[in-house]
């Protein structure tokens, strides 16, 4: 039996994002199997038979591909993006696990691809530049309670987030529900990115504060990203750049707190920094002087000081002015007027 | 000024995973900037000047690239994998935000790539086939307390997980600490995947139960994946296939509970299913008959019933026998002896 089965990712849409590995295997295939628009994307060659099917028949499609490979065909199952991220690879393995035992011995490979969230992130900057999660917002295969629990825990972990399948005709209300959960849990104006038809000629990128996001901004061709509490906007003449810094930076260091910091991680000989803000409702320095010290504070301070580059750049103007307001939450983001001084 | 700056991902290592988009831009570049092994991976052409630097100098490297682009050069900053995932894109934007304001007006683009976790996932099946998160385990730029909190919340959300930078010479103890946190929080034998030099000729994939994972299994060339509580192993003659099913499946439905399920989602006319298990210490059916009904139960049931394919496949032998033990936690995984009957 010389048949094989490959599950391949076609990337987010642009042919220039299909890896050479995938193109090579498609050129050798006798059969290509997948959702109609993805099969249509595959380059024609005379010996290739196309098997298109509608979505929501993933297991039937997987079994069809497995039958053909068992019969000696060279079969490629195509997904958009990466086949292992909310796509056909898991469906094929479900079919194998519950199907004919001979399917386990097939020559089977998964070829990775550029998944939509990476192309969406690249299109606006680097919002997934720090720890992040990817959640499928469809409740076709899991209950809403699970989705909402994951959203709340992801906010608690301060992950940046990528949301697949935010909305469809058969699920008109789901994204609104997710959005409300996120607004309640985040309680700030961090950037949300709506990336529609990413990498295609009609790509549209829309960056809005979470507070202004509305359900109709997403459809089934949209992948949605949400920044963490740390995510920054760089304003410029064109579209803003959105990115999440690599480091978890400190938002304030007060003398009373710094006395507990090991000497080796103090800033210079003073070991203290003072944060002030131009907005009267967020005078963090005076607030901190009265506040009890939360236990995670010392680690935050250490983190900031270890991150020498961050510490040095705090003497700049453009960066820290905005960074602090972002830390302070509500109404912050890029609109702030605060500043930080390290002494 | 005709200079530009592109931040491009070279994929996990194999040249066949570099997108044509990235290859095209490298052919036009005058300067390539990056960590030594990544610059070495770029194909030679006569007009290309190489600027290699060691790691840990990301901001200096970014500023150097920005200076050259401002001076009219066509500069590509290369990262392995995807540049937006724990790589150079965020570093460049940090440099822009805190640097000369003219840098904001540069022609700057990010080109996505196949990040390591996708190649690692493809190499062993589809362990990231359901909701997942990606965490950088280096504490160079964030405190350990943040990492540990994220690990615990990710287990609580039942995400599959990908871990970047698990270990290095300068951080010999970090991965052991993360591993202990995960073992304590998961308390089961879900599969952990160590993917070393993924996509390269000397690729090594090691799949072990979390309980058997040890710190020395990871080094700085390893990306580590961890299944969710749902992740499955398909045993076969070669290496096992690891995948996380697309659906959150129900692990038990009891008559007393099903009376609260809307009629539309009942199974047939009976609306009930009974779960039994061969292991005396996990006789879930009898346990459930005595237990109060947790509120998330109804959603779980609905999820299972909506997922028609799962429900049908529950009559198979190989699949559900293992699926149930996976749900039951402790000592479950692929070694179970339970079964489920839908009536």
Task: Give a description of the structure.
The structure is a homodimer of 343-residue chains. Chain A is globular and about 55 Å long. A 5-stranded parallel sheet of chain A has the order 3-2-4-1-5, with helices on both faces. Chain A is 33% helix and 21% strand. Chain A is an alpha/beta fold and 343 residues long. The model of chain A is unreliable at 250-343 (pLDDT under 50). Chain A contains 12 helices and 15 strands. Chain A folds into 3 domains: 4-114, 3-Layer(aba) Sandwich (Cobalt-precorrin-4 Transmethylase, domain 1), CATH 3.40.1010; 117-230, Methyltransferase, Cobalt-precorrin-4 Transmethylase, Domain 2 (2-Layer Sandwich), CATH 3.30.950.10; 255-342, no CATH class. In chain A, helix 2 links the parallel strand 2 (31-35) and strand 3 (49-53). At the A-B interface, helix 1, helix 4, strand 5, helix 5 and strand 6 of A face helix 1, helix 4, strand 5, helix 5 and strand 6 of B.
């Amino acid at each position: 039996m010389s048949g094989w089965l490959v599950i391949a990712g076609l990337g987010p849409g642009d042919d220039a994002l299909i890896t050479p590995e995938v193109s090579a295997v498609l050129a050798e295939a006798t059969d290509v199997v997948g959702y109609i628009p993805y099969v249509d994307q595959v380059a024609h060659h005379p010996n290739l038979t196309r098997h298109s099917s509608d979505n929501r028949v993933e297991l039937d499609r997987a079994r069809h591909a497995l039958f053909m490979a068992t019969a000696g065909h060279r079969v490629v199952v195509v997904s958009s993006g990466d086949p292992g991220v909310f796509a056909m690879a898991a469906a094929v393995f479900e079919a194998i696990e519950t199907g004919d035992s001979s399917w386990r011995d097939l020559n089977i490979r998964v070829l990775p691809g550029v998944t939509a969230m990476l192309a969406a992130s690249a299109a606006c900057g680097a919002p997934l530049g720090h720890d992040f999660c990817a959640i499928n917002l469809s409740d076709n295969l899991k209950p809403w309670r699970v989705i909402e629990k994951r959203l709340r825990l992801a906010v608690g972990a301060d992950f940046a987030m990528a949301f697949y399948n935010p909305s469809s005709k058969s699920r008109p209300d789901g994204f609104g529900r997710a959005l409300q959960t996120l607004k309640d849990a985040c309680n700030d104006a961090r950037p949300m990115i709506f990336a529609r038809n990413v990498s295609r000629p009609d790509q549209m990128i829309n960056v809005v504060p979470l507070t202004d996001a509305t359900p109709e901004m997403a459809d089934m061709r949209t992948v949605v990203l949400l920044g963490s509490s740390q995510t920054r906007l760089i304003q410029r003449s064109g579209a803003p750049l959105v990115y999440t810094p690599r480091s978890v930076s400190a938002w304030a260091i007060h003398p009373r707190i710094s006395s507990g910091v090991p000497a080796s991680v103090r800033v210079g000989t003073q070991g203290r920094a003072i944060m002030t803000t131009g907005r009267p409702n967020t005078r963090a320095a005076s607030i901190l002087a009265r506040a009890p010290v939360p236990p995670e504070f010392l680690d935050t301070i250490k983190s900031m000081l270890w991150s020498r580059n961050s510490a040095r750049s705090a003497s700049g103007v453009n960066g820290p002015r905005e960074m602090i307001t972002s830390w302070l939450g509500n109404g912050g983001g890029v609109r702030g007027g605060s500043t930080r001084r390290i002494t």
